[in-house]
Amino acid sequence: MDDLQLLRELGDETPLSDHAALAPARAAFLAGVPVRLRKRRTRYTLVGASTIGLAAAVAATITLLPTAAPAPAPGGQAAPAATSTSTTTSAAEPVTDAVRLLSFAARAARAEPTTAPRPDQFVYTRSGVGSNGGAPREIWLSVDGTRDGVLHDHGERIPMPGCANGRRNVFKGTEAVGTEPCEPRPAYRSDLPTDVDGMLAYLEANASGEPGSVNARGKDVLGLINEYMLSPLTRAALYEAAARVPGLSVVQDARDAAGRPGLGIIWPVPPGSSPDAKPVMIVFDAETYALLGTNFHSIEAQAVVDEAGHRP
Predict the structure, then answer these.
(1) pTM here?
(2) Cβ neighbours of residue 19 under 8 Å, at least 6 residues apart?
(3) Are 273 and 41 in contact, with CB atoms under 8 Å apart?
(4) Residue 133: its pLDDT value, please?
């Protein structure tokens, strides 16, 4: 089954992004890049302003979310997503309950040091995609949303315009050909709640899709961590909020797109989906509860750097 078919089968109850959220994809279109609704890249373009973002494809039906990737170390050192906490469980006590697994992940997140990046820095994320021929996907997004970032994907270099003074550049190729209205989309979400009740209230107030839609709630949660960075307390609150969504189940022998073993969490596909539709599985490290990725992509590193295009 190709990616386009997968997206159709995962359900389409979630509404399309608004004008502001589609701005980066529109910029890519003007740059001569098909708005990523092409085979194999479809997964990366339904995006919002984080744009063409990884799990965005998955967002159409995906599930969970949180990023247990560790907080950035001082000096912009890479924070490998698979080695982020000391929280472990005994092999004699397998985690078979989704609420328990997410509780462990939340506890691990709270144990991470808090090091907020500067507004003038960039959040760097490198990930691998199973259908990308082994080539990594790299993206640099402005911490405060006002500076131009960049995306390296499938051999292409795509500008990610920042929003300054209410305007962002529109690119054709690598040349700015005009501007359009915008609102900054910070890559570091310091504005989000740090407690579970506050996070649930935020998700409810900003819900998309039909009322009570589990599929839409998964999309909303995923949208908060897709190539963005959250503080440890916010990530913990997001895990705990996700644990209150019904229908989650644990997969003991899960593997992410890179083949790394872990514990998986899945939700059932939306009602009315094709019998061939496959749920997206979020994979966590079985000992540290760091987020490894999904069955479609793996998270290799996330860090804070001083300039777009620089690697930690």
Answers:
(1) 0.70
(2) none
(3) no
(4) 58
